[in-house]
Amino acid sequence: MANIGANIGGMPLVRAITDDGTTWDDPAPARIAALLGDVGREGGEGRFLILERCADVSGHTYLQALRVEAGTYVVEFRDGSADRHYRAYSDAATVRAVLTAWASDAATWRDMLPWQHVEQPS
Known about the structure:
This protein is α+β, with helices and mostly antiparallel strands. It has helices at about 30-40, 90-105, and strands at about 15-20, 25, 50-55, 60-70, 70-80, 85-90, 115.
């Protein structure tokens, strides 16, 4: 299990990216919570936060949260390819727990939400 806020050889393990393009390398749990809080502010519909695994240069290993309405988020993760893309809806507290667990590489994040496979258009 990786430690949030630690990296190996100077390369970040996880990068957080906000909807305005601001990035944070290896964000600590408090930073992830604050960033999600920014997404959840009043008037924040359509704002998002992405966490990506830096070791995947393809950019296809990530978890993202989008505020769809007050108190409700859609969370999606892609695990390396389009056929491994999943989605769930939840509240801010659960989404925060999922984001921090994913960032720390804890296996528990997968069991925190009822993930549904996202069908890709053909």
